[in-house]
Predict the 3D structure of the following.
Amino acid sequence: MIGIFYGSITMGVGALLAVSVGTITAYLLQYDKDQIANGIYGFSATLVGVALTFYFEATLIVWIAVVIGAVLATVIQHWFSNKKIPVFTFPFILVTWGIMYLLKDVFSVGPSAFLDIPAEINQDFAFGFRGYGQVIFQGSTLAGLLFFIGVFVNSPLQALYGFFGAVIAGFMSRLYDAPIELVMTGLLSYNAVLCAIVFSGDKIKDGIWVIIAIILSLVVSFIMSVYQMTPLTFPFVAGTWSVLIIKKMTARISDYKY
């Protein structure tokens, strides 16, 4: 929260409003209390709140959209949870894409000033931390560092995997002549951060799965950029789902073989 408020008070308020609405919705609908306590019904809602206040001018209709979006993200999250499907941030993606279309093309809401703020493009390894920041729409090194510390408190291994995943994604992107400003601002690394955190582990094969997931997420990112689509965290979800399917298939082949 400090990292988000450092980047923008408006986005910080959007995050607090959305996570509160999402959590209250889960309580009112009597979802599993342990899942509520673990934040399962808060993170997608939070991302919706930050995303909408990042992309659009914070008018009344946008704040209403934040509330509605938080409720929808929570309900969708619960549906996937009941189906035992690892949904990750997909509810956030679905809801945000839909609301962005309505706000832009139906209600003609103007873009926010954040879209015109120049991002940090220092050519240093701090772009790995900026990749952390871009997970929640923050382009500053300090915000990314704070997010990294937050993950590190929970799991040092996951935090380090996330950082090196961001760095690896940056180097891979440059191999395909991706614009240096996109690399240095972390915009091509934040999906890799999430992929690396999901598959982090203390075995060599865990690192291999991380690399595969990062590569797949980058491919999806590049395809979406060609068609000028707003990626959000869809490359992460697509890459992670693909790896989970591959892991399941290889496990079945191994069981059949022996």
User: Anything to note?
Assistant: The chain has 13 helices and no strands. The chain has a mean pLDDT of 94. Residues 234-257 form the longest helix (24 residues). The two ends are 50 Å apart (CA to CA).
